[in-house]
């Protein structure tokens, strides 16, 4: 009988001890290698590291409350007549599109001659807790759009939207279709009635009223904790084991730190907008059912008649294909295209593989639907033509 | 519960009741002595301290103290009329006031003993399960006994302030309990991954395959199992319910804490969140109206 008792403390603690052992063994290999790792890690971590993100120069050209509109300084003559307005999500920051030189969607677009404006939601404070979806869609997004249209003396612009920013842009496109020439949606959820991702399952069981009453704005750290818990084994353990394994590689460490800086730079979410997003979309799925009303107007997806390109990731665990692939069947556009890339939620913007597909595809798609810009003077025509060719070459590459 | 388990539980209860009884007896004796010491003038030895009236030696003092604390930890019973009538009843009164705490301690000891008994028979074999049960017992007992104290009706001018403070303490305890349970749930996959790897290795050995010697391969096996177990857990009803419960308790605690802090802030020249939120709401409504008017003026101008 005694031999059957497996209650010794050492056995009880075994899983925890073994986990540590496995991690250390994975990292260390043998002692000489481990020593070498430690020495190099020390050298790298104590040396100056290039970890700045969002280094492409821009000017803030419009502001309302905390929200800012960035205009990126062109690096070449414009190749498209219509400027591109980028609407990012409020979860995390738009700096992800300009993570580092050579891994920057913004840089790719600028090199191709796109005139880029990007909405920066900045950091909401407690006074923003009553801002709702209507304020964001019909207030901030519309305000920025009006500014760009007025500045350029045009009636329509192109919109490219990301994730939650995409969902709000779909609402905007349905309410103000006359202001949009082309709409590019990337990892944009419109259908919330599925169990493909944990986020959906969890969000549906949340009580948004209690959370908002308790916090006012929803803290970014709480959101981040939720995202980490989507896959604790990979995001809280394996990722850092990977860092330890590559600690002798300065480029790896710099890239890793940049990504960490971006991931944990999480603004809070305005309480009321969060409450409406969870209740109306995750719980009631109003958008895809054409039952959403904003600012007293029904958000009818059939009003979206401009060309639409819908890009999403096959392995996206936050916004799985099931959340995105119904959009085109519900809108009124005839010129529409779905593109499912073999990547995840963030990889779509930052992985080297998709960098070669994602940016160039959008540039090509927009170029095909844009009129050529009209150079102001005859002498600039040749220059513009040369630049355009250069941009096209970049796109092809 | 089968007959065997019932019998076992009943036997445990009988043993425990006997133990409590013996402890109470020891307490009565010890308190009697202590009360006599307190009542004796100038700290003289009690009359019945010994036939010879000599000072007690270190052994006796130690024994007395031991008995006293032993008794203290096992006090049980209800106050009787006259309990507070004289200085003689001071120790009784003090001990009776401490009764819920010691009752709570006894319950914990009992549950721990039961759990240890169960563990000794090899029932819950894993650490997570034991820790979970222990914590649950701890918080259940705490909830049962401390809640009674915290919910004692408050009287007088300060009653509302005191109630809000008590509520904040109670909600903090509830939240702590829920959070602990949630965190323990998150530890379960770690344990299961460990046993999963062990089983895998045993299976390979049984099949005559070479055991995994490479630490990287072993790590990959472990992390994959860990991920699988987390995926299973995170989709389970148990996880959802615990998460929801934790968030609800967090909300209740934050609300109760905010109310308590507001009481304090009202005495200082600092606006409370409630004051500021009202102001922000007014600002928000005003801004919307101004924007709407701006649009109207713009439209009319065109």
Strand content of chain A: 5-15%
Mean pLDDT of chain B: 74
Shape of chain B: flat
- Between the first and last Cα atoms of chain A, what is the distance in angstroms? 72 Å
Q: What distance separates the N and C termini of chain B?
A: 82 Å
Tell me the number of strands of chain B: 0
DSSP, total strands of chain A: 12
Major sheet details of chain B: none
CATH fold annotation of the domain at 58-203 and 302-396 in chain A: Rossmann fold
| Helix proportion range of chain A | 40-55%
Q: What is the CA-atom radius of gyration of chain B, in angstroms? A: 31 Å
Uncertain residue segments of chain B: 41-53, 120-124
Secondary structure: elements and pairs:
The complex is a heterodimer of chains A (397) and B (302).
Chain A: H1 9-28, H2 31-45, E1 58-64, E2 67-72, E3 84-87, E4 98-100, E5 103-104, H3 105-111, E6 116-120, H4 133-152, E7 157-162, H5 163-175, E8 180-186, H6 198-205, H7 208-215, H8 220-228, H9 232-245, H10 250-263, H11 271-283, E9 293-294, E10 297-298, E11 308-313, H12 321-324, H13 327-330, E12 336-341, H14 347-350, H15 352-355, H16 358-368, H17 379-396
Parallel strand pairs in A: 3-6, 3-7, 7-8, 8-11, 11-12
Antiparallel strand pairs in A: 1-2, 2-6, 4-5, 9-10
Helix pairs in contact in A: 1-9, 4-5, 6-11, 7-11, 16-17
Chain B: H1 3-39, H2 58-72, H3 90-97, H4 99-120, H5 127-150, H6 159-206, H7 215-234, H8 237-265, H9 273-301
What attributes characterize this protein structure?
heterodimer, A: alpha/beta, Rossmann fold, two-stranded antiparallel ribbon, 17 helices, 47% helix, globular, disordered C terminus, B: 302 residues, mainly alpha, 9 helices, 77% helix
Quick gist of this model?
The complex is a heterodimer of chains A (397) and B (302). In chain A, 47% of the residues lie in helices and 14% in strands.
